[in-house]
Structures are given as C-alpha cells and as structure tokens.
Amino acid sequence: MVKNFIDLFCGAGGLSLGFERAGLKCVAAIDKSKACIDTHKLNFPDCKSIAGDISKIKPKDFKKKIGNKKIDLIIGGPPCPTFSTIGHAKIRSIETKKDSRFTLFSDSRNFLFKKYFEYIEYFKPNFFVMENVPNFMTKYNELIFQQTKERVEKLGYKILNEKNLIFNAADFGVPQTRKRMIMIGTRLKIKNYQIPEINFFPRDNLFSKGKSNYVTVKDAIGDLPKITDNWRIDECRYSKFNDLTKYQSLMRKKTNGSVKNNICRMTNDRAKRVFKHMKQGSKYMDLPKKIRNILPFREDIFHDRLKRLVNNEPSWTVIAHIGMDGYMYIHPTENRTLSVREAARLQSFPDNFVFTGTQMETYHQVGNAVPVLLAENIAKSIDKII
C-alpha cells in the first residue's frame, strides 16, 4: 500500500519530488509563497497544494482541507530564526550556559518551528523527516539539538541514527557539495534502520565520474542549449548531443525534446569584462587589482563576490539568493551566470519539473530546495521499514 505524506514549508517541492520518486504519495503541501505553491501545483497535480501562512492554520483546520486521508509521514524544513537573529552577547551567554532562560520552544521567533511539531503531535504519523542547516546540531553548545530531542521524545518519537544526521548531497549523485541536517523520527520500534549509503550512485557506476568521483558540473549541465544573458525564450529544443552522461539522460527523462526555464539574469558590460579574466575555480580576489577596479566591491567583505564554477568538480552550495548573487555562479566556460535550469540541474531537479513565477522567484525556488536525489535516497531508506 502506498504511504501518504504531508510536506510542510514545501517550497517548490524538492523534498516532495524525492519522496514521490521513492514510491510515496504527497497528499498535501503548504507554503506561504504563492509562487512556490503555483510551481508545486503544476508539478504535483494530484496533491492538495495550499498557499497559506501555517502559523494561522491549526492542524485540525488543515485536516479539514485535505480530508480523512491517513498520514504516514510529515516532512519539511521549518525555519528557526534564532539561528541568525539572536545577538552575539546572547549567543555567548547561551554557549557558556550562563543564560538558562533561553529555550527553543519558548522563543516567540521560533513559532514556525514549534508549529511543525504541533502538526506532528496532531497527525501522529509513524515517521517525520526534518531538514535544516548542519549547525543545527552544534549551535549554542548543542542546546538547539538537545531541546529538539527532548520535544521529539516527549511526543513519543525516537530519532534514528542520532549520531549521523549530516548528509552531503554530493554523496548521493547530486552535482553539488551541499551539507544538510536530516532528522528522521519514528514512533515505531525500529531495530535495524540502515542510513543511505555514501557514494551510492558513483559506486554503482550510474553516473560518469569526475576526478573527485562525484557527478560534476559538466556532467550535469554540459548538454543544455547554449544561451546568452539576453536570451528570453523560456522553452527551447535540446542541443544535438550524442554523448550524454547518465546524469544528463536521467535529467532528460519524460521530456518532449525541449527544456524550459533555461534563461539567466542579465549581466552588465563591466561584469562581462571581468568574467573574461577569470579561470575556472578563480575568485574575485584572485584577479589583479586593475581588473578588480573595473567592477569594484568592498574587498574586506566581498572577497569571493565573483566565482567561476569548475567543469570537472561538483558545484559549491547553491543558495536561495542565487538570483541576487549570481556572480558567485559564473558558468565554467561562458561569460554569464547560470540559468535557472542549470541551477535546477545542480539541485538534481529533472527537466520535466517546471518552475513558475518571475525570474527572481524561480531562482529562489531552486536555491531554497532540498536536492531531489538526496531526498529520494532518504525516502528509500524509510520506505524499507515503514
């Protein structure tokens, strides 16, 4: 029997897609961003995709929206604002345990984080999966993690594989070095949970191998149609490419011979002049001073403001504001920044997954997502025991 899940804070649907590819069914999803939900609806037509503020929707009201379906899992990445907004003095007092008043679940700024666990308490799924940044495990002298663990256990759940919750997406066939904390909780008695195996895809020879034994940038995007930064045709035919890598073949599955979202941000002439002097892997501060003066930045802050990707290595982490900070993702061989589709390929979104919204919104959807292949491997490890 197919197992059902809810995706909270779903974004465009990276987690949703990974779990569906593993054989589970997304019956409902919610996000505050209408652009994200428009994308989610387009790609998951059988799912109840809701654009709404989860802080204003009680779990029982959410249930009314989705009906009486049995919920086997809840997945999602709830934001935790105190990671970034708490003051330095406050951080020091917490880390030295001088401030016993701070608790993760009593801080009003963490309302959405608390809401995630309210939904778990109400629906009582057999499993939950929570995604967050790696320093979730160590921040504030491990106080965040310990208080989360206490809440999880109070609800009757156990964290699986507690000592190994950090995963690098590159280890699962994603052409990107991206580390995330993935917490899996269950209220079932599980004795032999097996975490996803490192280097699963390269070891099985599913993808071509770069020098690091990972899927590389060229493996991922080398077959996509060539464009310029003023290219504004959203859908174009694939280039004739006879020697596809297995990753590229995987990305092209279930397409009609064309690809969408392959447009990039405009680049001004000064930036293009600088790009011409950048080798693969080079950064802004590697350039001679006279070249940096063409496009000056505060060098004490923006030392890596410009970075050119390397063909034969995985990309560095694709971030949510890639649309604003596109100069950190200069194409390996062309003097432009990455297109939305190229960024999506680095996040392991297949080409038949279409993003909707403004260009900036689509960039944000891509960068803010959980890589699909990472999510799929996590889901497969759960599907074996659910």
Summary, kept brief:
The chain is of the alpha/beta class and 386 residues long. The protein is built from 15 helices and ten strands.
Total E-strand runs: 10
Please identify which CATH superfamily of the domain at 4-200 and 371-383 we are dealing with.
Vaccinia Virus protein VP39
The main sheet comes to: 8 strands, mixed
* Helix and strand sequence: EHEHEHEHHHEHEEEHHEHEHHHHH
Topology:
Elements: E1 4-8, H1 14-21, E2 25-31, H2 34-43, E3 48-51, H3 59-66, E4 73-76, H4 82-85, H5 88-95, H6 111-123, E5 127-132, H7 139-154, E6 158-159, E7 166-168, E8 179-186, H8 200-203, H9 217-221, E9 235-237, H10 246-252, E10 258-260, H11 269-275, H12 289-292, H13 340-346, H14 359-367, H15 372-383
Parallel strand pairs: 1-2, 1-4, 2-3, 4-5
Antiparallel strand pairs: 5-8, 6-8, 7-8, 9-10
Helix pairs in contact: 1-15, 5-7
Question: What features would you describe in this structure?
Answer:
- By secondary structure, the protein is an alpha/beta fold.
- The chain has a domain of 210 residues: Rossmann fold (3-Layer(aba) Sandwich).
- It is 32% helix and 12% strand.
- The chain has 15 helices and ten strands.
- Strands 1, 2, 3, 4, 5, 6, 7 and 8 form an eight-stranded mixed beta sheet that branches. A two-stranded antiparallel sheet has the order 9-10.
- Strand 1, helix 1 and strand 2 form a beta-alpha-beta unit.
- The longest helix is centred in the middle third of the chain and has 16 residues.
- About 5% of the residues have low confidence.
